[in-house]
User: Fold Putative 3-methyladenine DNA glycosylase from Paludisphaera mucosa.
Amino acid sequence: MDILPKSFYDRNAKEVAPELLGMHLVRTIDGVARIGRIVETEAYLGPPDLAAHSTKGLTKRTSVMYGPPGYAYVYLIYGMYHCLNMVTGPGGHASAVLVRALEPISGIDEATNGPGKLCRALKIDLRLYGHDLSGGELTVMRPKGRPEPFTIATSPRIGVDYAKEWALEPLRFTIAGNPYLSRR
Assistant:
C-alpha cells in the first residue's frame, strides 16, 4: 500500500472527502497495524461553513486546521469521544474532512460505525492531534491492487442542525449500502 502524499490533501475538502472513501486508515500500535477501510466522511469547508470548528477563528483547539494540509485534527466531543479529521486545502484555509466510519480490514475487533467508535477502536486520542498523516503511527493508504467498485452517496452532514443553511449542504459522503456506516 502507498501512503497518500500531502498533495492529496492540498485541495478543497469537498473534493478530498469522497476520494478518501475506499482508502485504508492505518493505526500502528506496538508494531501491530489496525486497518480499516474508510466508508463515510464529511467535508468541513473552513470559516464560512457554520458547521466547521474554524468558523469561530483561530483557537488553541483549531490551530492545526490553520496549518498545512495532511495533518490530523483530533478533538474531544461531549467530554468522552474523540473524532479524527484530516486537514485539507492550502495552509491557512482551515478546512478538514471528518472520518465518520470504517469497515474493519485487519486487527480491529470493536465497532467502527461512528467517529467516536472508530477512534476508540483504533486508540486515536488527543496525543495524535497534529500528527503528520504521511508517516508514523497513523496514516492513510491507497489499497494495493484493483479497487473494489462502489457507488458514492451524498447527503447532509449529521448533527449540525445549528449551522443554519450549512446544515442542508450535501457534504456527507458514503459508500452506498455499506453495512458499517454510522447511519444509513
Q: What stands out?
A: The CA atoms of residues 1 and 145 lie 9 Å apart. The first helix runs from residue 6 to 9. The first strand starts at residue 2 and ends at 3.
